[in-house]
Amino acid sequence: MAKELDFLTKRSEDYSRWYNELVVKADLAEQSDVRGCMVIKPYGYAIWERMQRLLDDRFKATGVQNAYFPLLIPKSFLSREAEHVEGFAKECAVVTHYRLKTNETRDGVVVDPAAKLEEELIIRPTSETIIWNTYKNWIHSYRDLPLLINQWCNVMRWEMRTRLFLRTSEFLWQEGHTAHATREEAEERAKLMLKVYADFAEEVMAVPVIQGVKSETERFAGALDTYTIEAMMQDGKALQSGTSHFLGQNFGKAFNVTFTDEQNQPQFAWATSWGVSTRLMGALIMTHSDDNGLVLPPRLAPIQVVIVPIYKNDEQLKKVDEAVNPIVEELRKLGISVKYDNADNRRPGFKFADYELKGVPVRLVLGARDLENGTVEVMRRDTLEKETRPLEGIVQYVQTLLDDIQKNIFEKARAYRDSRIYECDDYEEFKDRVKDGGFFLCHWDGTTETEAKIKEDTQATIRCIPYGFEQTPGVDMVSGKPAVARVLIARSY
Amino acid sequence: MAKELDFLTKRSEDYSRWYNELVVKADLAEQSDVRGCMVIKPYGYAIWERMQRLLDDRFKATGVQNAYFPLLIPKSFLSREAEHVEGFAKECAVVTHYRLKTNETRDGVVVDPAAKLEEELIIRPTSETIIWNTYKNWIHSYRDLPLLINQWCNVMRWEMRTRLFLRTSEFLWQEGHTAHATREEAEERAKLMLKVYADFAEEVMAVPVIQGVKSETERFAGALDTYTIEAMMQDGKALQSGTSHFLGQNFGKAFNVTFTDEQNQPQFAWATSWGVSTRLMGALIMTHSDDNGLVLPPRLAPIQVVIVPIYKNDEQLKKVDEAVNPIVEELRKLGISVKYDNADNRRPGFKFADYELKGVPVRLVLGARDLENGTVEVMRRDTLEKETRPLEGIVQYVQTLLDDIQKNIFEKARAYRDSRIYECDDYEEFKDRVKDGGFFLCHWDGTTETEAKIKEDTQATIRCIPYGFEQTPGVDMVSGKPAVARVLIARSY
């Protein structure tokens, strides 16, 4: 992995290229030799692991338990729920055989035609069908409800055009699948999980999100309602960062999941499902990072503080080591992840650039002169500001600084986003401006025709009917028909 | 999930049936409708999650980082390493197509013949090939080594006869793949990871294991040496619980992974791989459990302490609640997982039996009379012993008791195993006794012929050439030829 550190394309030059380069150069992920499937490298995976852990804690705090369901789904399951199959079943990996055999020239393997499956199996693109087929045996009485289950797993959707983290054929995610006795309880759960996602995005990832509900066109295949969180990337495009679906009784009916209610009457169970994926890595990267590389919120940074010594000889290094070791120890006691990079294999300037590229939130630099003066140089990655601080009290200072960085990058991202949310009432103006990115709040008449026309004319879509904005009725900018509310329209990833 | 609690088949009646029933009735796992694939239920998954977390900590303490590699492997990769393909490539799930389409009658889906892959993809049975194909790009200089990477994932091997946890087509595991500059370092790593597994098995799972090295016949396909930990189940059979492989330069050569050494000479990298899987759940269950159900080591128990109130009316319950709540709080402060089951939906006797079935290590029962006397009934799951203790100091008592149970079930399992390890020098006697289980230490001449004959005659195999036993040369009990050491022979899962 020794390589020359080269610079990134600037965002202003080519945003898309900047992203692709950053993901690879910061050692987050890379394309594999398997079409559309990525390798998540150790540094990228360490960030994902922290996301998983913190999300998982939040799920469990709402009563959710983890479980594991099969990777493969019988083909016939997919067609049980009619809308679901329309939306999902088409582009997926199909297992048709279960054995290879040595070829005739004995230098390779071929598929054994004798080992053909009676029914083909699909690698899960999502698991509603296999899970509801299982719930059938788990749910008998209202006492068995609610059932609140999540799984962390890999899924596969055969994508033709892929981009690391944002759109890959295989990706990692969690999918929650809950079953309830009443419609109200299921709807409440779907909304609760959206709130869990929104809080996680804002508090942990420092990514501000707009919560809302999808239009019918943009709903999950088989859902009665899809709730979403939408984040704005630095190019003004939207990135759907998490969705939570109220599925009604569709899967209950498709898989015959009934329970006897308190009046001893049979009822179909009510369902939700909700998921976030490694796509969140894309949201994280594109919200905060800059032309020097990754900017990470301290709560997700695998290394929160890096300490780099400056020295001319072994004697000087030994003195710096002696000063640094107790600082490292104290920081670790506070639960702060710290790396003291006193390795002799790279010059300090190279180390600086590399840790900037990797988004380490705080850098401390200590040299011989600092030791004399009792000082240390502190650099914060979010603003790249450097200052010289007294060594005494540096541990507490760093602790406060990490909180400050977490807060600052959130505020910065929010201010940026808010500056690019526009109310717009004129379609010509909209068409002109939407090319340059931004979120547009526009009145919508609620018809799929208008929605389709906007998409065709501009590639922009209705991201959601947002919460948290004051709504007044108006006139649809496309059709001129009455509209009860403004919706959020943007181009998206 | 409401169901009548029925009793288990006794181990003495039918050990195999006892196991199958226990796994299902204790809510650990069940068969899915997908052949050979299991559903890991929340209670079973909670145990697996604890195993994962604790193993992962131990891996990281040795410098290992996690990453993620693709699920699918191009068919041609499998034939790159000749021995590897012989051992592995045959029984696996083959992806041949990437699209479905609606059928002619529009009521189902069929595989789209137009979407046939040029090269078939295999669902990973293990990931040496795809990972070493990636390492090729990561390793250039000795400075890039060692590379110490692990992944937690699902794998698939098409099994004809499956048993929950012990042998399933899809299973969960971790696979570590390391690359080194020298043979010595790689061998050391392979042995180190075996030690990590052995320590985890004994200290966390309370499962005593014998460490050793496999015979050539039993080696992993592509390995120069396979190290193993072997545990004895209660029927005297061996269960291979974890393996660590020294792979030499086989994969380095097959995937052309070279580095320049300190003398600037090109060298092939040296490899290890090592893994444990959900099979460990089977080892855990079959080592400790009894005719009442699961017995769990406290370090892996999702619920370590359950408290059940006895009451005749709401007023009594309220008083018990008041006494129990501070105990719950104090236990939690000590990091002890505790459940206070004051739900009114099941009689105490039913609760007792259910928590016994689920292996909760400690049960506290509190009734009106206990409140008067300032006492509490304590039951430990491992011995089923009950005693009445003063309420005062109960929290410290429980904490000590949990440690004691952890230690006791390990000692019990070790004593049982040790009582069934036999030195045997007579093949007729061996053939007669091996049917009843047990580990046999026998001199072996080192030939595959002898090994094959033993297997054919008795179904028993050489589990390993064990460490930790004093070895003296002798005579092979089958061939009569000289033998340098005794090997461990047993029937196995």
Describe the structure.
The structure is a homodimer of 493-residue chains. Chain A contains 14 helices and 27 strands. Chain A has 493 residues and is an alpha+beta fold. In chain A, the strands form 7 sheets. Chain A has an 11-stranded mixed beta sheet, with helices on both faces. In chain A, β6 and β7 form a beta hairpin. In chain A, α2 packs across α6. The two termini of chain A are 31 Å apart. At the A-B interface, β2, α2, β3, β4 and α3 of A face β2, α2, β3, β4 and α3 of B. β5 of chain A pairs antiparallel with β5 of chain B, so a sheet runs across the interface.
State the gist of this model:
Two copies of one chain form a homodimer. With 493 residues, the first copy, chain A, is α+β, with helices and mostly antiparallel strands.
Provide the fold topology.
The structure is a homodimer of 493-residue chains.
Chain A: H1 15-25, E1 29-31, E2 38-40, H2 42-61, E3 65-66, E4 72-74, H3 75-78, H4 82-88, E5 94-97, E6 100-102, E7 109-111, E8 116-123, H5 128-138, E9 147-156, E10 170-180, H6 183-203, E11 210-213, E12 225-232, E13 238-248, H7 250-254, E14 258-260, E15 266-268, E16 270-277, H8 279-288, E17 305-309, H9 314-333, E18 338-340, H10 348-357, E19 362-366, H11 368-373, E20 375-380, E21 386-390, H12 394-419, E22 421-423, H13 427-434, E23 439-444, H14 448-458, E24 461-466, E25 474-475, E26 482-483, E27 485-490
Parallel strand pairs in A: 3-9, 17-18, 17-19, 22-23
Antiparallel strand pairs in A: 1-2, 4-8, 5-8, 6-7, 9-10, 10-16, 11-12, 11-24, 12-13, 13-16, 14-15, 19-20, 20-21, 23-27, 24-27, 25-26
